[in-house]
User: Which sequence fits this backbone?
């Protein structure tokens, strides 16, 4: 079951089945995509020089049950900024230099320097489920070619040109502020199916993108260079995307996890100019979450300096540049290897208040958006916090003592005041008091529900509420002032162990990018016909929103080939009664996901 609800006005636009069974492999390596037929494509002239990409055909590898995919033009490794190397390390993003001749755009650029999670199995499984660990192992080869010269983007555009320009969807990758790459997310199927131009970008990660030595929160100083990279990419897109068939007046920014938090930061940033982008889809992340912002970034900068032998000034307020200058001279590998400590659940290097890109007191400023107006869609998965548990927690469940340790740690690291009261409120709200025996699996599920609501559902819904217009907008879906909310909880048909039941963090990504529509080249496909239908629906909702600001139009839902008895589960409904039930601090999941909890909701929509 997945519902998308507009906030003021509120309405469900989809019920996408029930629950997902496992963490899907949410990425497709561009380097290893062998479902591609490459042919030379005509040159594209940008503001900085000529590019030559290639034409990709899906004919040989498309599944028979899926929608016919038309070819796309692909341009990989396109530079959007001057390489941040040498004296440019830790500096704001600079525009790229023009090049002479024709630049090949047939291979992706190198990924930014990054710190992968532990790759030793025993250590890794103490902090993540096995499914997450195995995904990291699969991706490490694709993330091995690292360089500080990494500010590149990849473009996927429909090969056929219509009378009008295509909407543009710009993906900000998530996974972590410390690792990942836009190269992992292939936008070809989404571009072909939805007839949109898809752009995936790389941006500086970890200490290279978010080093902040500022100890004065009230003093403005640019430090969020990773966010500035994203802004620079959006400026490049505004200047050049029309040459690829994209409409610079219809740019939708979308991201997942930490990428969604970046989108949320950009929505509220005074550094973003009007009309740089026009819509946004925020998937399982928010700048309001404690998982998204570094509260005391200078402590990690100081720890880093001490680890690599840089002298730390006695007065960091006056002499912080001395520390930055020393770190600028250090070897990148040495910096990445330094252990700066940290706290469970919280980032070490990530966005933080710098007074320029990220300002404090976001809640007070967000409604005005600095004069900008956006169409917005926010959403979560059913069990986003699944990936925060250890493998032992996931497989064997937790006892009451382990549950208390997890929740106490989260509360202590996330809140400054009333920690005891908050902790006991969580225990009271997420304990099934009607059950006389507390089984380990039940305690695990209650812990996941509590952490999911606290770290994802509450901040994401608060973000949606803060951005939603004060009064209902009619007609709904007009450009510039509609806000939607979705819950993704689809269960893949293939089946999986019961401890992984429920849609987890990242479950929707394969469906957003259309992976079920193309056959794997080795072995049987991991997707079933039901997955193909769900992916087509998700891509339709997402690209509808990019085109009109309304996930329901122009393409109608549900797909006409669905059985009649299933069609009522995928219709658009207006559920004004849902808004009072959205959680503001710690929400009860039954009130968010079950229709019987909502007075006046139509039968058959949610299960």
Assistant:
């Amino acid at each position: 079951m997945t519902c998308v609800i507009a906030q003021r006005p509120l309405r469900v636009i989809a019920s996408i089945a029930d629950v997902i069974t496992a963490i899907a492999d949410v990425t497709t390596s561009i380097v290893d995509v062998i479902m591609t037929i490459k042919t030379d494509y005509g040159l594209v002239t940008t503001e900085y020089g000529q590019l030559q990409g290639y034409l990709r055909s899906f004919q040989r590898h498309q599944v028979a049950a899926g929608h016919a995919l038309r070819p796309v033009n692909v341009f990989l490794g396109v530079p959007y900024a001057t390489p941040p190397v040498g004296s440019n390390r830790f500096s704001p993003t600079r525009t790229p230099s023009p090049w002479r001749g024709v630049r090949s755009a047939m291979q992706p650029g190198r990924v930014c320097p990054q710190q992968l999670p532990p790759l030793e199995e025993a250590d890794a499984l103490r902090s993540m489920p096995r499914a997450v660990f195995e995904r990291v192992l699969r991706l490490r080869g694709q993330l091995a070619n690292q360089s500080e010269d990494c500010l590149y983007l990849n473009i996927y555009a429909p090969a056929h040109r219509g009378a009008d320009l295509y909407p543009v969807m710009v993906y900000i990758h998530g996974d972590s502020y410390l690792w990942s790459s836009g190269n992992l997310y292939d936008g070809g199927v989404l571009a072909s199916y939805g007839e949109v131009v898809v752009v995936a970008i790389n941006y500086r990660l970890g200490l290279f993108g978010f080093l902040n030595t500022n100890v004065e929160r009230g003093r403005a100083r640019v430090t969020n260079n990773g966010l500035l990279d994203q802004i620079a990419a959006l400026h490049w897109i505004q200047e050049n995307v029309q040459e690829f068939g994209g409409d610079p007046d219809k740019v939708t920014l979308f991201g997942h996890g930490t990428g969604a938090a970046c989108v949320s930061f950009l929505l509220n940033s005074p550094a973003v100019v009007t009309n740089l982008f026009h819509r946004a889809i925020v998937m399982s992340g928010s700048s309001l979450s404690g998982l998204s912002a570094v509260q005391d970034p200078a402590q990690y900068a100081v720890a880093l300096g001490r680890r690599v032998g840089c002298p730390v000034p006695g007065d960091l307020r006056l002499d912080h540049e001395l520390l930055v200058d020393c770190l600028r001279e250090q070897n990148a590998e040495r910096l990445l290897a330094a252990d700066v400590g940290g706290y469970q659940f919280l980032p070490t290097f990530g966005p933080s208040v710098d007074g320029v890109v990220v300002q404090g007191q976001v809640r007070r400023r967000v409604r005005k958006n600095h004069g900008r107006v956006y169409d917005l869609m926010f959403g979560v998965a059913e069990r986003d916090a699944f990936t925060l548990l250890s493998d032992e927690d996931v497989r064997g469940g937790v006892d009451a003592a382990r549950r208390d340790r997890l929740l106490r740690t989260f509360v202590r690291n996330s809140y400054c005041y009333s920690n005891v009261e908050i902790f006991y409120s969580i225990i009271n709200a997420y304990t099934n008091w009607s059950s006389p025996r507390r089984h380990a699996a039940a305690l695990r599920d209650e812990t996941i529900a509590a952490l999911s609501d606290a770290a994802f559902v509450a901040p994401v819904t608060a973000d949606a509420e803060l951005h939603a217009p004060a009064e209902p907008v009619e007609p709904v879906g007009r450009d510039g002032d509609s806000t939607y909310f979705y819950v993704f909880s689809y269960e893949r048909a293939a089946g999986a162990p019961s401890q992984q039941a429920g849609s987890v963090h990242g479950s929707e990504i394969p469906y957003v990018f259309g992976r079920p529509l193309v056959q794997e080249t080795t072995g049987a496909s991991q997707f079933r016909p039901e997955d193909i239908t769900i992916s087509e629906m998700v891509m339709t909702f997402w690209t509808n929103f990019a085109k009109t600001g309304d996930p329901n139009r122009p393409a109608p839902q549900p797909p006409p080939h669905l059985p009649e008895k299933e069609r009522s589960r995928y219709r658009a409904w207006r559920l004004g009664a849902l808004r009072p039930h959205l959680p503001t601090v710690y929400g009860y999941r039954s009130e968010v996901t079950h229709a019987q909890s909502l007075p006046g909701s139509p039968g058959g929509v949610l299960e």
Remarks:
- The mean pLDDT is 82.
- Residues 440-467 form the longest helix (28 residues).
